[in-house]
Structures are given as structure tokens and as C-alpha cells.
Amino acid sequence: MSCAEGYMTDSEVFLEYIDLSVWAKAWKMLFLAAFLGTSADLLPRRTIPAMSHIGLARMDALLALGHDSRLAWLKELHCILGAGEPNALFHQPTQTLFAASRQVVLLLQDMIESGATLAQATAHAGFSDAVSGAIIDRIAGVLESRPLVGQAQPTPRVLKKLVLNVSHDCNMRCLYCFAQGGTYRLERSLMSPKMTRQVIRSMLGYYNEIGELMFFGGEPTLNPPAIHSACEQLQKAYEKGILSALPFCGLVTNGLEMSSTMLSLIERYHLSVTVSLDGPASLTDGLRKALDGRSVMQRITATIHALQSLTDGREPSAVEMVYTDAHRQAGSSMSDLLDYFKQEFGIRHVYISPVILVPEQTLHWTSQGQERANVQTAAAKVIESWGSSDRLQSKSLTRCLHPLITGQSLPYLCTAGLDHLAVIPDGSIYPCYLLMDNEFKMGSISEAHPFEEERFQLVQKRMMANAKVNLSQCRDCWMNGLCRVCLGAVFSPGEIMSIQASHVPTDLCEFNRATAESVFLTLCRLHTDPQAWESLVSNVIAMLQSNVYRNM
Prior knowledge:
The structure is a single chain. This protein is α/β, with parallel strands linked by helices. About 40% of the residues lie in helices and about 15% in strands. The protein has helices spanning about 20-35, 55-65, 70-75, 100-115, 120-125, 130-145, 195-205, 225-240, 260-270, 280-285, 295-310, 325-330, 335-345, 370-385, 395-400, 400-405, 455-465, 470-475, 485-490, 495, 505-525, 530-545; strands spanning about 5-10, 15-20, 75-80, 85-90, 95-100, 150, 160-165, 165-170, 190, 210-215, 250-255, 270-275, 320-325, 350-355, 410, 420-425, 430, 445. The longest helix has 21 residues, at about 505-525.
């Protein structure tokens, strides 16, 4: 067995550290000032001494006596076994990824999960003491050189995302709609241009930067005047030097109708357009219903083609798809749907959102049976495409990579109310468009200083209290620093506000874990192909430069 260039190989042993630092460097160059409050170089490093020289018996004796701090990293490793080679090891505290042969993973898994001593695990694996010692040394040596990751905290006076609900009305009635036909149980209304200008002025009076502005609803294209007013106000602020850079501006539309006025605004202000679409006509028409009862698929297709013609194919830049049990019953896998949107519309960025309602509802997606493999196959397809020139994108399937790129773990299930805000047509401020009950109201744009009011601060503190450290389900999870979970989608308002949230739905956790494991296994596999790995590294940097991962 050799230990050259950071990895070891023979017929049974393979262990290699996957260096992702090039992505982190690209991220820092692009976004250090706005989003990284602490340089990774200033973070503490843990000291892990080399172990093999003291012998396996001595190591086991130390563990038996309770002196396990010298192998504390062992309990922090997550072992990922795939169908072939290589497999993966992930260390959460330092966010370190290793590619490893199955026998190496089984050796460590034997100790972590079965409680075997190192000597016993060595015998079970059929390794010599020297081989096991070298494995331990190699992992310990890499982890010693890696910084402990910090936690991503909201940057003061920086708003990463502002959602303007310019329309509390909709021209569709989707079967799984969370917004009750676009009203959120409130009055049907449109945001006035005057209110839109007031929102922008108020936000810029407090926040130094707005990373992203999303026009939402209901159906936002029902209110072009408000969208025009917001974009115009931002443009003026930029020209006056109030903003150092314009926010990334976009909208999410059902695509049922698109007026010439709306098309003109998209072209003029270079708005990013995401179209909600659930797949072929048989699925989309079955799940997404127009008020007039006619088929929606033909009209959405016409809108997509009109946008592509107007923008030379740039828009729509993405599709947002709600994956339901109806898709499973129709035999449409997530991977199939990625192919469908690419082949039918040339759209390569698909945000897949599994619908998590209540298990009794017929559209509820479940992670049971073959659905875990369904998720993993789709995630692998996306990562594999990064090793080629035909790149697919799906933030929902690859979100676990963002903390590895930034070098910061995610302490909150969601940062709604912290660096994400939503404003509805009457100027009321909420943490998110899914949290619009009165108890979540943070204030109103009509107030002189809404962001300094006691109510605003109170809701923020309550949202922060739902950090993962306060959830027993999350504290011991191997990927607690990698995932995000929508609070509005999975918890009742009373739970969040009274800090009683006790769990995340199993199906949502399994979706996150399945995607992460598939992403890591695929990265390890691509790392064995220098040409594919070079393409993958270049593709990720290109996505960083194009803001694809800026506001994940």
C-alpha cells in the first residue's frame, strides 16, 4: 500500500481526500464582502495527533478508559455506501469529504455503528494492523489540517432576499396550492405602484444591500404596474449611489398569460423568469387548473416560447416543479422530468419541490419504497452533468454543496425573518410568504421605522429560537449543517411562535439526506476521472459567477 499524494491504494484499500477548496476560493473572491463575515483562514483548527504509531491495542485501551478525545472525529464521520466504488466518508465539523473503498467504509462503520474495537474491526475487514493504522493516520492528518467550519449568520443591514407579493390574486387554482388561490386567506388585492415605491424606499433606508428581489403572488404578472414601479425605484437608487449594485430581480409565474406590457418589463429590466410547471400535459393539466376550465398546458407552452423568442432563449431561466404522488403513480420519475424539460423546452434548471402536506392527502409525496432511489438518481444525474458540457441545474437537489463552498454551516432550518422578508399588498411585513398569520406580522411599511420597532425584533428573536440546536432531531443528524427546511411548510404557526417545534417531517428529512448522500457519492466517482472533474470544477465556478447559488 502506498500513501502518495494524499491517498492510498491497493486491491482492497482506497482513501482519498476530495479537495473542494477551489470553489471556496471562487466564492470568497465573488462574495466575501457581502456574505462571509469571517474568513475561513481565521477559524480555529482542531489538533488531532497521528495514531498508528501507538498501536491498535493502545488505541483500544485509550477508548476503553474513556480517553476518546483523540479519536473524537470517528464519531463525527458519516459513512455512505453506494452500489459500486468508490464510496464516501463525510466529516460534518470540518465539512470534509473522502472517497473510500467499500472495505475502508465498512471498517469505520463497524466501529461507529456496531461498537467494535479497532482491533476487532481490523480483523473483520481482513486488514493488517499497518493498513488500519495508516487509514486512521490519513483521516486524522487531513482533519487536523482542516478548519472547523463557522456558522452562517445573517449579516447586519444586509437583506439577502425580499419577496414582494404584488398580487394576492391568481388566475389558476392548483390542487396543492398553499396560498388558497393566491389570497393567503386575506382579501384579494394588488399592490399599488405607490406602495411598491414606499416599500423600496423603506427597505433602502435601513438595509445597505438587497441581494435578491422576487416578485411573487398569487400571480405576479397580473400586476405589471407594481413590478415596473419597483424596478424603476431600484434603478434610480442605483444611479444615485444609494445601492452599490442592483439586486438580482426575478419573478415566479404560472405562465398562463403574459401581456405585452409584462414581456416589455422582462426585457427592459432583464428580469429572471421561473415558470411553474409540473411536467407533460397529462400531469400539468391534472394538477394545475385554470379558472375557465380549459387546458393550461398549451397556454403555458406558448408563454415559454414567447419568452424564449424575446430573450434569445435566456428566459425562462428555470422551471419550478411540485413533485407529488400523482407523478409517482404516473411513472414519471424526477430524473425523467429533468430530461423532459431539457428536451421539450431547452430548460436545464429545474427546482424540484416535493409536496409535503399531510400523509392522508392523496398528493402527499412520501420517501418510502422506491422514492428514495428516485431522489438519489435525479441528484446524481445533475452532478454527473457537471462533468460534461451539457450542464443541468437543480438547487433543491444539490443544496447540500452550498455550505461546503462557503465553508459555513447552516444553523437555522430557515432564515425567514432574519435576512429574508416578505411584504404583501397592504404593506404588512412578514418573515415569509408562507407565514402570514397575524402572530407573524413584523410591522408595516407605513411605520416610520418598522425595522427598529419592538414587534419586528420580537418576531426575529422567535424565528432565531428555531435553530437546529434546539431540535433534538437535528442536533445529532450528520447533515445538520447542510440542510434548509421551510418552516412555513412544515410547522404550524403556533409551534414556531411558542418555540415548540419538535421535529421535521420524516419525508422532508429523507429527501435532504438522500440528495446529499447521492451528491457526495457522485462527486467521489467523478473525482476518479480527471477530465470530468476539471469540467465539474469549471461548471460550479461558472454557476457561482452567474449567481445561481447566491441566495440558496
